[in-house]
Amino acid sequence: GVLIEFRELSLIYPNGTEGLRNINIKINEGGEFVVIVGLSGAGKSTFIRSINRLVTPTNGALLVENEDILKLKGKDLRRLRTKIGMIFQSYNLVKRSTVIKNVISGRLGYTGTFKSILNIFSKEDKLLAYENLKRVNIEEKLYNRADELSGGQQQRVSIARVLTQKPKLILADEPVASLDPPTSHQVMKYLKQINQEDNITTIVNLHFIDMAME
Ligand code: ADP
Ligand code: ADP
């Protein structure tokens, strides 16, 4: 079935800048891997951020699992966001926190901030976090602070965090824009691998320059 549908979707930012104009697209569930490529300012980030309502489109409809998400607020919005794993250009880890705590926090889902991380973890939490770190080959950094890792390592931790969330959908907003070509290649490889093994629909934004590196 259809997982996401944009219907004549437009977004104009409060200052009048056009972010999206009349977008119509359907993305199926069951492990599609969608790559959005375009020049800076084309609206790639606005497109991605509309899907978990980090930005709010101003016209049209945006359906996720047949529900128009433009009307959602409060706990309904949080419910939507728990289904969606988000990966950012700047990793968005809690820098002073350990790798394992960052990964376990994924089970809370994306809430906009990660302030409310409990310090008591169950054995199951730790085991799942460890298994997910292993999938991106970074398990040896378990007890390191996030800010002791290189960029590529931090992005792999953020992928492990998203896995802990068990999302239906992964949105990756310029995930390799801060990384060098070999590291970018490696991060893209992990995203594709997870997409194929777990059947998680994945949408990735890339600059033309990133594509050239693939
Ligand atoms: P891309 O990700 O392709 O670089 P964006 O989605 O970031 O493009 O931006 C699309 C357009 O919206 C650009 O003209 C950009 O300047 C503008 N834009 C993005 N974010 C904002 C914002 N918060 N306020 C106003 N304009 C914005
Ligand atoms: P990259 O070549 O990916 O940029 P870096 O040179 O940043 O990698 O890091 C190389 C190694 O040094 C990594 O294993 C990383 O974990 C470690 N490292 C980087 N910064 C720090 C730091 N501030 N404290 C401790 N270890 C660090």
TrEMBL record:
Matches recorded under CDD domains: ABC_PhnC_transporter
Q: Which domain of life is it from?
A: Bacteria
Give start and end of each ABC transporter domain: 4-213
Q: Mind telling me which GO cellular component terms the entry cites?
A: membrane
| Single GO MF annotation | ATP hydrolysis activity
Q: Which UniProt keyword terms apply here?
A: ATP-binding, Cell membrane, Membrane, Nucleotide-binding, Phosphonate transport, Translocase, Transport
Coiled-coil annotation reads none
PROSITE patterns, A to Z:
ABC_TRANSPORTER_1, ABC_TRANSPORTER_2
Q: What is the official name of this protein in its record?
A: Phosphonate ABC transporter ATP-binding protein
Organism whose genome encodes this protein: Gracilibacillus boraciitolerans JCM 21714
